[in-house]
Automatic annotation (TrEMBL), chain B:
Subcellular location: Nucleus
Its job: Component of the 9-1-1 cell-cycle checkpoint response complex that plays a major role in DNA repair. The 9-1-1 complex is recruited to DNA lesion upon damage by the RAD17-replication factor C (RFC) clamp loader complex. Acts then as a sliding clamp platform on DNA for several proteins involved in long-patch base excision repair (LP-BER).
Phylogenetic lineage: Eukaryota, Metazoa, Chordata, Craniata, Vertebrata
InterPro entries the record matches: Cell_cycle_checkpoint_Rad1 (IPR003011), DNA_clamp_sf (IPR046938), Rad1_Rec1_Rad17 (IPR003021)
Family: Belongs to the rad1 family.
GO BP terms, alphabetized: DNA damage checkpoint signaling; DNA repair
Descriptive protein name: Cell cycle checkpoint protein RAD1
Keywords: DNA damage, DNA repair, Nucleus
Length: 416, 285
């Protein structure tokens, strides 16, 4: 019998932000991304993950055992016992954590447990006045969801207090879907992204620039404009701000995915967003800028093994080596899809292009998502994956089974 | 219903002769003391009004399974004159509330709508004189012959389980009840879990447990373990009454019928009562 049980302190007992409300805030951030929540209890902590239906946005919150008052796995003390991994509907979980203020006021302790025989996740809130709320939610067993993202291979790195990024994105209206982050040796700018065909006379263009000195860490390996979905990032930034954590941003050339990352002693969180391939669509006020090297940086890095981003954090000292790699690969022919795919998923056919036609239609995707060519990963979760068309998209990163060796029956298959 | 706007004429200067024709005259300096409590039972359009020398009782029913009553004692009114032992009529409650709020219902301190409610008897409309800031509005609402309210035969001697809780502790659970659950299950027992509300929805089930020694539990008298289910659609409207109240008593009888009684304080701190009666959906165990 596989089990997991963890206990969270309420705000009244333990100092915020390590508490139930913080956990709830993470759920809020996860809910901005996808409609399903993957729970993956591991020895190193409890991972909560979500991905959007177009597979262009992925987020993971990892709470180490120290975040919890109590954290235990397994039915006994066997280290090798299988842990249950499950998937829940976001709409089942989010309402439990919707009222964060009320949780902060009333909840003294919370317990989350998963146990296989009953196929239920039990979330209990022990509240003031002796009142107990118990929720037993159905879950589906599922393979873990994980994206591989080789941060250390990214030529561009920024690190800034969450507050700085929050202040920047605050200037964009809530309905602004995508923004473009431009990195150049002497500046970083954010501007709103407008699709071609929109009436330019009716649009309001917003652009903000920052000097490299504003950042805790600034490294430009390659000038680039990346356009990504802002909506999916807001929840994460809000969480980062509430914990006053600096945000690391790793990215490369236009079209490659971007990773936002925060970490402290008891938790770490990541958002990986795909970026638009086509960077020529800009507002009329934008300068054309220097020509971007269009070949992926890592064409010559095929020999590097794929590394799980969780082990990596941000290691700026690795970056310079990659920067050298960049200069030597200037002028190489365009390889599309990005060559990171070749690193991680040799079974995939790199000639499968025309991603935009294959992108899974979904009411929840943003308009530009259909043009995003980088598929971050493939969640090879048995038969639950309903995106049949995802099989034909190039895979940037593969489903990882690095953590648990017991998934022997897990099949890595190119088609779902 | 027709509206007539009069020149500034305070309600109190209406001639006494007018009053001779009415079998019921009830006045309030603040119409909110009536409208607020009526909102707690407005889940159907029509309400039965029954007035006695003790005060006013307003009843709303749903599908013969649910009944809500609001009681406003005669003492709450600045004037309460009744010429018969029992005066009964039926009106459209939604229209009545619209009239009571005709001045916009803004809660500016010190400014309130005064009400004079008059009824001439069988066949007459319900006449409302409403005044705010010197402006008087007269509303006449058609009345119908009152239906006989259902007698749920709920009597104290038959009560098996009773608890009184501070409303504060129930407000949040009630507002976040899983609406995909068709029923609300109430378990009352002299042993664990003492008092439990349960839902069974699409995502799974949820339980809200109140121990008998909770400081929110003002009274705990449970003699027998009982679990009953009630249709969620019938009980959900009671959330409004809960929101207004400071205490609620929950009682079940041997048949599983549910009585919810809410103690409501109005704007002036006076006490009124709202009660809900509900038939069980089915008996469990």
């Amino acid at each position: 019998m596989a089990t997991m049980s963890c206990v969270l302190e309420g705000n009244r007992v333990k100092v915020a932000p390590y508490c139930v409300a913080a956990f709830g805030k993470a759920i809020h951030a996860l809910s901005r991304i996808g409609e399903e929540l993957w729970l993956d209890p591991m020895v190193k902590g409890l991972a909560l993950r979500s991905v959007n239906s177009a597979h262009s946005a992925y987020t993971c919150f990892l709470f180490s055992p120290m975040f919890f008052q109590h954290y235990s796995l397994g039915s006994g003390s066997e280290q090798g016992s299988a842990t249950i991994k499950c998937k829940l509907l976001m709409k089942s979980v989010l309402p439990l954590f919707r009222g964060l203020n009320s949780i902060e006021r009333n909840v003294e302790r919370s317990q989350i447990s998963i146990s296989t025989p009953s196929d239920r996740v039990t979330i209990q809130f022990f509240c003031r006045h002796g009142i107990t709320k118990t929720h037993n939610l159905h879950f589906q067993e599922s393979e873990a969801l994980q994206a591989e993202f080789a941060s250390h291979l990214c030529p561009n790195v920024l690190k800034a207090p969450a507050r700085l990024l929050g202040d920047m994105v605050m200037h964009f209206p809530v309905f602004q879907e995508e923004i473009t982050l431009s990195m150049m040796p002497l500046s970083v700018s954010f501007r709103n992204y407008c699709e071609a065909g929109n009436d330019h006379m009716k649009m309001m263009y917003t652009e903000m620039s920052l000097h490299p000195d504003e950042f805790d860490y600034f490294q430009v390996g390659v000038d680039s404009d990346i356009t990504f979905c802002l909506k999916e990032l807001r929840g994460f930034l809000s969480f980062a701000e509430s914990h006053s954590l600096p945000v690391s941003v790793h990215f490369g050339a236009t079209g490659n995915p971007v990773r936002f990352y925060i970490k402290d002693m008891v938790l770490e969180a990541t958002v990986v967003l795909a970026t638009l391939m086509d960077s020529e669509k800009r507002g009329p006020s934008q300068p054309i800028g220097p020509p971007h090297p269009s070949s992926p940086r890592c064409a010559d890095a095929a020999a590097l093994p794929a590394v799980s981003y969780e082990a990596d954090g941000s290691k700026p000292q690795d970056i310079p080596a990659v920067t050298e790699l960049i200069t030597s690969s200037q002028g190489s022919p365009i390889i599309n899809p990005p060559a990171l795919m070749q690193l991680l998923s040799p079974v995939d056919d790199p000639d499968r292009l025309s991603v935009s036609d294959e992108a899974c239609p979904s009411a929840t995707t943003t308009p530009a998502s259909t043009m995003i060519c980088s598929l971050l990963f493939r969640a090879l979760s048995s038969e639950q994956d309903d995106d049949g068309c995802a099989a034909r998209l190039p895979v940037l990163a593969c489903h990882s089974d690095a953590e648990e060796d017991m998934e022997e029956d897990y099949r890595r298959s190119p088609s779902l | 219903m027709c509206l007539r706007f009069s020149a500034a004429m305070p309600l109190s200067t209406q001639s006494q002769a007018d009053d001779e024709q009415y079998v019921l005259v009830a006045s309030l300096d603040n119409a909110r003391n009536l409208s607020n409590i009526l909102k707690a039972i407005t889940f159907k359009d029509h309400a039965i009004f029954n007035a006695t020398p003790n005060g006013l009782k307003v009843t709303v029913e749903d599908s013969k399974c649910l009944q809500a009553n609001a009681f406003i004692q005669a003492e709450i009114f600045q004037e309460f004159t009744i010429k018969e032992d029992l005066v009964g009529f039926q009106v459209n409650l939604t229209v009545l509330l619209d009239c009571l709020n005709i001045f916009g219902g803004s809660s500016v301190p010190g400014v309130s709508t005064a009400l004079r409610m008059c009824y001439g008897g069988y066949g007459f409309p319900l006449t409302l004189f409403l005044e705010e800031g010197g402006v008087v509005t007269v509303c006449k609402i058609n009345t119908q012959e009152p239906d006989e309210p259902i007698d749920f035969e709920f009597c104290s001697t038959n009560v098996t389980n009773k608890v009184i809780l501070q409303s504060e502790s129930l407000k949040e659970p009630f507002s976040e009840l899983d609406m995909t659950s068709e029923v609300l299950q109430i378990t009352m027992s002299p042993s664990q879990p003492y008092f439990r509300l349960s839902t069974f929805g699409n995502s799974g089930n949820a339980h809200y447990d109140y121990p008998k020694d909770s400081d929110m539990m003002e009274l705990f008298q449970c003699t027998k373990t009982q679990t009953n289910r009630y249709k969620m659609s019938l009980l959900k409207p009671s959330t409004k009454a809960l929101a207004l109240s400071c205490k609620v008593s929950v009682r079940t009888d041997s048949r599983g019928f549910l009585s919810l009684q809410y103690l409501v304080r109005n704007d002036d701190g006076q006490i009124c009562f709202v009660e809900y009666y509900c038939c069980p959906d089915e008996e469990v165990e």
